[in-house]
Amino acid sequence: MLMTGKEYIESLRKLNTRVYMFGEKVDNWVDHPIIRPSINSVAMTYDLAHDPEYKDVMTAKSNLIGKIVNRFSHLHQSTEDLKNKVKMQRLLGQKTGSCFQRCVGMDAFNAVYSTTFETDEKYGTDYHKNFVEYLKYVQENDLIVDGAMTDPKGDRGLSPSAQKDKDMYLRIVERREDGIVVRGAKAHQTGSINSHEHIIMPTVAMREEDKDYAVSFACPSDAEGLYMIYGRQSCDTRKLEDNADVDLGNAKFGGQEALVVFDDVFIPNNRIFLCGEYDFAGMMVERFAGYHRQSYGGCKVGVGDVIIGAAAVAAEYNGAAKASHIKDKLIEMTHLNETLYSCGLACSTEGCKTKAGNYQIDLLLANVCKQNITRFPYEIGRLAEDIAGGLMVTMPSDADFKSDTVVGNNGETIGDICNKYFAGSDCATTEERQRILRLLENVCLGTAAVGYRTESMHGAGSPQAQRIMISRQSDLEGKKKMAKEIAGIKEK
Ligand code: SF4
Ligand code: FE
């Protein structure tokens, strides 16, 4: 069953998810003006799956249930699937201009599927079967699942079990006949409130003493003992203003992150995918991170397309579109953006089959992809700000542009004055100019900057995490050998 965006939004109302924001419980979070744009972004992942134009990229035939499912809940069956994933993410970035949140679940499905297979192979456990049954349920019902990895981590110099506060990494606090009880939290969780379900994974490779922390499982978002505290974003309270529209820049869409707290949550046996097999924690982390590093070569590129377009429009409205340096800056932005896309496609094309049968990206290239993402969006944003001009951050509010308070000697209103002095080229109204500059403000500095800038730095792992992987995958010894051979140096 493929839900529509509307059906998805209605399905959220049936959940009893506990949400807190600004120190208070939010009961009707589905219609909350700060939260709703992030729900609209997720809804787009449902609506586009019904659009005949995007069917191929948005849907796929499930290897588990034999039906057409949303690609966001699909296990990649080929390198073609991996490439289509990136294309789908670029498309959604273009349509929402923000983070659409559903990728974390998709990346978790693919990582947990292959890791559970290999864990079972070694330990004779039932995790793969548990996971397959779970994913069938997700696919049949077209659910959104938050793939949750990042623990709060406390003192970064200490391992999970060495932390003073043992809750700094999510862990098993009780083992029962019928399941386990878990305690801890997952931080920066993208789209967690908007998800029907959560899949939890460990966040680092572990040793024997950390085995209570080597845990993976699924549970509903409204499980007993689970609650979320909303992460605020720059300029978020603009969404609470009367007639909030122009000043938002992107009034309809947004991203979402939250702290998800597990206050002794019971997990039944059939939803457990790892439980103490600490030697597989690293594999799960590496694979999930690899998939999510690939993901950024799609989603950030789509948002990049919107930024490049907005910068070009702003230049036109400023009357500067013909200047050669503007043209050159737009070319540079395009070059950077397409380089990111190339990385997303390259790690997909070079993907390979896992033992479980689904496809995995080339890990070295996926890490190179994400490493570039930690840099290029900043440069693209810098060039967009250069082209936009200072007005992007100094413009009066839309209420001023619409005000009829008289200020001038000849009876001019604040609105008259704003519209007079902030007019640009005749090709656009001042409101159109406001709108495009506010959009750039939103993506470079406002609510969407979480997804485009800082998330580009830290999401799917901070830059150093990629450098470690790049160093591990780089085969430096092999390269040294090549050089010696050509230089005529004999191996000793
Ligand atoms: Fe998807 Fe990108 Fe958001 Fe991650 S940051 S959930 S890849 S849109
Ligand atoms: Fe992310």
Describe this structure in words.
The chain is α+β, with helices and mostly antiparallel strands. It has 17 helices and 14 strands. The chain has 2 domains: about 5-280, Butyryl-CoA Dehydrogenase, subunit A, domain 2 (Beta Barrel); about 285-475, Butyryl-CoA Dehydrogenase, subunit A, domain 3, CATH 1.20.140. The strands form 4 sheets. A 6-stranded mixed sheet has the order 2-1-10-11-7-6, with no helix packed on it. Strands 5-8-9-12 form a 4-stranded mixed sheet. Strands 3-4 form a two-stranded antiparallel ribbon. It is globular. The site of iron/sulfur cluster (SF4) has 12 residues, from helix 5, helix 7 and helix 15.
Broad structural category:
alpha+beta
Relevant CATH superfamily of the largest domain: Butyryl-CoA Dehydrogenase, subunit A, domain 2
| Major sheet | 6 strands, mixed
Radius of gyration: 24 Å
The number of helical elements comes to 17
Strand content: 5-15%
Low-confidence residue ranges: none
Q: Return the domain count.
A: 2
As a percent range, the share of helical residues equals: 40-55%
Adjacency order of strands in the biggest sheet: 2-1-10-11-7-6
Distance between the termini: 63 Å
Molecules bound to protein: iron/sulfur cluster, fe (iii) ion
Number of separate strands: 14
Spatial shape: globular
Mean pLDDT: 97
CATH third-level topology of the largest domain: Butyryl-CoA Dehydrogenase, subunit A, domain 2
The CATH class assignment of the largest domain is Mainly Beta
Instruction: Quickly give the CATH architecture of the largest domain.
Output: Beta Barrel
